[in-house]
Structures are given as C-alpha cells and as structure tokens.
Amino acid sequence: MRLRRAASWGLTTGFRLGLWLLLTADFGRFNLIVGLALAVALPRARSRLASPSLLLRSLWAVLLSIPQAYSEAVSMMLRPHRVERLTSLGGSGSSSSLVVFLEVFRITLTPLTIALGRRPDGSYLVHELGRRRGG
Amino acid sequence: MTIDPSLIRLFSAVLLISGLAFWLVGTWPLLGRSSYLAKLHGLSVSDTLGSALMLLGLLPLRPAEWPVLSLALFSLVIWNTLFGYVLGFCSRRSTAPLEAMEPPP
Questions:
Q1: Residue B15 to residues A38, B27, B58: CA-CA distances in angstroms?
Q2: What are A114's strand-pairing partners?
Q3: What's the ipTM?
Q4: Which chain A residue has the Cα nearest residue B80?
Q5: Per-domain residue ranges for chain B?
Q6: What is the pLDDT of residue B19?
Q7: DSSP letter at A135?
Q8: With an 8 Å Cβ cutoff, are A116 and B38 in contact?
Q9: A13-34: per-residue pLDDT in tens?
Q10: Is the dihedral of CA A54, A59, A62, A64 positive or negative?
Q11: Model pTM?
C-alpha cells in the first residue's frame, strides 16, 4: 500500500511539475523550485490507488496504441469502413480512476473504436467500425 | 553533425501536408448521411491524429518553441480523445439501448 501511495504521489507531482515547466518554458533552478512547491502544495484527489505495475502496463498500452491509431486511420482512408457494430472489450477491472481513464483513452484514441461506457464487470461497451459484417 | 535545413523543411512539409490530408478525410464524412457515431470515428482521425501530425510538423520549423508546441500536442490529443468519449457516452441512450450496458444474465 505504501508503494502504491508513493507511486501515485510521484506520478501526480511529476505530472504537475512537467506541466508547470512546459507552461513557463523556463527550466532554471528557481522556477524548478517554485514549480515543485506548487506541485506539492496543490490539493490531491482521493481516489483508489492502482498498483504501479498495472499503471505502467496501462501507460505502455497507451503508447502502443498510437502507431495502431495511425495504421487504422490510413486503412480508413484507403478503404471504406461502413459496418457499425457494438462490441465489448475487456478491461483490467481496476477501480482506480487513472487506470480507467487510460483504458478509455486507449480505446477511443484508435479511430475504429470508441468507448461508450463501462460495464459493472470492468469491460467496456465499444462502438466499432468494420469493413464487413461479422468480420 | 548538422542536418541540411532544406531537408528539415521537407520533413516538416510532409508532416503538415499529411496532417491536412487527415483533416480533410476525417471532416468530409460530416457532410454525409452516416450515423452520429460513425462521424465521431472520422473526427478522431482528423481532430486528434491530423492535428498531432501538424504540431509535429511545426516542431522542426520552430525548435525554440518546443515547450509550447509539445504542451499543445499533449493537450490536443488528450482533449480531443476524451471529448469523443464524452460525446459517445452521452449518445448511448439513443444509439445503443441501455440493455447493452447490462451484463447478460
């Protein structure tokens, strides 16, 4: 549990610090200290914590979905995808909001699938475009 | 090692033009008669992937502005994708019956 809390704390602080540095576009030592102080001082959401390995796996899956999104976009440009269907995609079933966010993001980023909602068992209702029925 | 500036310009022009092509391809179906969600799939091509290509194409032209450009890239990709999800989620009741949300008995 302590590891989970430390990982979530580090991830949130790093994310805020990164946003601060990009927004100010100033990587000097003073600005770094100000950004770090802000990142620590801002309130944190109290949500269910995910295990670091699950977080890393979800992040990795998001990175892998970027080239997949481009290949799907190119295949949509070359051939029409007119068949629509509702399917279901399995999720990790984690109750951590960050993991759910990453999974929804991964599904919706690829142009052939859009997540429409989450079922109680952790899977996702997905609207999918395809080339032919049942294929 | 220095890279020929004309090569950089060519590289960024290829990215910008392909981003524009993605924009056109994703926006064209909006005028058609396909379903709401099918149009949303096309918007994911143009808004998210096309805009990302354009911002990547601007990076080599203005390397000094990389913090702003990467922030724009990051927020555009997150915002467009999540907005697509929100629109899809809100359309669920009319396009996908609510029973589809329940697990089979």
A1: 37, 18, 8
A2: A127
A3: 0.83
A4: A109
A5: 5-97
A6: 94
A7: -
A8: no
A9: 999 999 999 999 888 999 999 9
A10: negative
A11: 0.85
